[in-house]
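pls design
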């Protein structure tokens, strides 16, 4: 296993720069040096914008000297390749989109820069952002810093790998099929899937489109420290989110889910979640293992997969040739609304749901089509695509979910857990994730 030094988080870096203990330029150069030293075999950072970053760092130092204070002033970071960064390709991994070069930053990048962030470049993704590994014809394959033979996840795989290896303290990803939560799990860092609609996606346009927000799709921060998720979220959110109501585990009401009717989960993942729940109970939390108001998870998964398929394909025919109708779409929305009401009722009795992110730790690189893959769970081959069941709950219901590191499994690979909270209670998810975490640097 390679050894990496995580160093300061985003909040720590911003505070140190503001206090004169370091400078934005020094932090920028240090991050560039880490990328140049570590990135080769990992291949996480695939677009580099060092010249602009150095200029922005110098501007941040000048602002500090004038007495300015902003949340991310001078903090170096990267963003997922799918975000619009002026003057650099935004391809989503498509070979035909190599010439898609935005002339200005997208809205999320603009918000980050306005808060003082120094953006060093962009990180790798799979083609169409449509896989749980990160490889494409434009930039090649990203490897997991914990084990180069394994995937870092996707679609924000380069983001998670850059964080886990210590290249940068902060990243911005996106999620519709676990694309923040699963890479965070495979790489042992924090990732937050936001409540739907909190962060505008007009700077995250599918190449060749005008950028309407896609159903269920969200952007969200990724970091090595839970507090940095909250810091970045407040910067990029288009509407204010309530502050965390849950600031201690004592009295927190947690529903632990370790079984799903459609998706297998390994014994070591179950054990890690149970250990996390036991730690929470020892700190005064009330841990439930079932609840009468929990939706039928099998029906939820089916509806989610139908909506996901229509959304990511733009309404193209399904593999069996069927083309969804407008009536089909409205029917799915009715199912979604009904299940959302069920979860809202559940959250009247429960503060958060604790659940797996994925049924195993990071898997070995597999170039087969996703629908042709199998996943070995405790020696039993299972259908790979069924693992989307774990992330379907939060996505289909527009709920926030924080992927938080809780253990190290076999092969010295990290294990994360989802903390799912009510709609718009993003800061509660992050707060609980921080209290439940057992992170360890690579």
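designed seq:
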């Amino acid at each position: 296993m390679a050894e990496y030094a995580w160093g300061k988080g985003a909040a720590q870096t911003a505070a140190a720069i503001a206090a004169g203990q370091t400078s934005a330029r020094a932090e920028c150069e240090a991050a560039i040096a880490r990328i140049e030293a570590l990135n080769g075999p990992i291949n996480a950072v695939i677009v580099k914008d060092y010249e602009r970053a150095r200029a922005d760092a110098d501007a941040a130092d000048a602002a500090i000297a004038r007495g300015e204070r902003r949340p991310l002033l001078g903090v170096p970071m990267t963003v997922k390749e799918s975000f619009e960064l002026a003057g650099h390709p935004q391809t989503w991994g498509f070979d035909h989109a190599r010439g898609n070069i935005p002339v200005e930053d997208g809205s999320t990048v603009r918000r980050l820069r306005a808060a003082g962030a120094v953006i060093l470049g962009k990180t790798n993704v799979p083609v169409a952002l449509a896989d749980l590994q990160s490889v494409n014809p434009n930039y090649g394959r990203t490897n997991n810093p914990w084990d180069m033979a394994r995937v870092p996840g996707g679609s924000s795989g380069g983001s998670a790998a850059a964080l886990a290896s210590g290249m940068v303290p902060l990243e911005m990803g996106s999620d519709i099929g676990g694309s923040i939560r699963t890479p965070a799990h495979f790489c042992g860092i924090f990732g937050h899937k936001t409540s739907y609609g909190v962060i505008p996606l007009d700077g995250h346009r599918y190449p060749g489109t005008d950028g309407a927000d896609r159903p269920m799709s969200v952007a969200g921060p990724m970091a090595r420290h839970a507090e940095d998720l909250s810091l970045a979220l407040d910067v990029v959110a288009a509407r204010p989110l309530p502050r965390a109501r849950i600031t201690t585990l004592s009295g927190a009401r947690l529903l632990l889910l370790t079984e799903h009717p459609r998706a297998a989960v390994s014994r070591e993942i179950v054990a890690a979640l149970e250990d996390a729940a036991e730690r929470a109970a020892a700190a005064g939390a009330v841990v439930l293992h079932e609840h009468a108001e929990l939706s039928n998870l099998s029906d939820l998964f089916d509806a989610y997969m139908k909506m996901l398929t229509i959304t990511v394909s733009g309404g193209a025919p399904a593999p069996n040739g069927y083309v969804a109708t407008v009536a089909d779409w409205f029917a799915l929305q009715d199912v979604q609304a009904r299940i959302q009401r069920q979860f809202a009722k559940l959250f009247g009795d429960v503060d958060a749901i604790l659940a797996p992110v994925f049924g195993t730790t990071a898997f070995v690189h597999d170039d087969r089509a996703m629908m042709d893959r199998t996943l070995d769970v405790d020696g039993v081959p299972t259908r790979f695509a069924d693992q989307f069941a774990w992330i379907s709950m939060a996505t289909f219901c527009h709920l926030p979910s924080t992927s938080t590191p809780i253990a190290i499994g076999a092969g010295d690979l990290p294990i994360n857990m989802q903390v799912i909270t009510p709609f718009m209670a993003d800061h509660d998810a992050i707060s609980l994730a921080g209290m439940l975490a057992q992170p360890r640097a690579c």
